[in-house]
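Contributing new records

If you add data, match the layout below exactly. Sequence lines come first and carry their own label; structure lines follow with theirs. Keep one chain per record. Anything else will be rejected by the validation script.
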Amino acid sequence: MTSDDERHVLSIQSHVVYGYCGNKCATFPLQLLGFEVDVINSVQFSNHTGYKVVKGEILNDNHLGQLMEGLAGNDLDHYSHLLTGYVASSSFLKKISQLVPILKEKNPNLIYVCDPVLGDNGKTYVPEELIEIYKTEVIPLVDIVTPNQFELELLTNENIETTEDVKRAIEKLHGLGPKIVAITSIELNNKLQSFISNKQDDMIITMDIPKIPTNYTGSGDLFAALFLAHSHIQQDLKTALEKTINSLHSVLLRTHEFRSKFANASSVQKAKTKELRLIQSKADIENPPSKLKAQYLNVK
């Protein structure tokens, strides 16, 4: 790879015209951290599904295939990283699994970071058949996987209530293929934590996350993009996790403070006030605070 290709991401996930989730969440932070970003949209929606009206289209395998053919025809499909997120079509997801070996043939050192967007808080928001496709066709190709608690449970068939459950689920997920498992958040004993595990180590890294009393659409997408960047830039995963969580928490805190000014807003206005304050958080993305610290958890 040439030096120009050392930080070049192909990001395949959702797109919204208004607001921040999917590619709209990933592109700006990655660019701020020095990455070129090429985007392919798995869906194109007017806004995220937290609004009362959503219009747009779901793309299929033919759309993805045509775009990749165009890139390959011009020898433009050289990437350091592949990042995938929300996919709503089983044919589109299967096409991604076919694409990974092609991209890795172009660059054997390519890192595939997969955010297996299936659902959250006990509720799925993709077709159920995607779960099995992730398990059998996608996850085995992944280098870094970034599920939330619910997605980890779906992918491993584990019910997570204790730290021992987390360890067991992480081991199962490693068994499917990924070298690094980065769990965005898990709630244990009324405490929110993130976990990182490298398949080659006998240690798990954990980090407490101060709770913010609202869920914000796009936070998982932002985690995946930030962790991709910092796991590439930093020398160790502990530092990568600390920088990821500190930036993410700063964005969420700024968003929460902004939202609190609109207590009497209408439902549409409330959805607008919950959009991530990404642009306003530019400094915290470029130079993450160092308030929150991670620690090692010996698993043996």
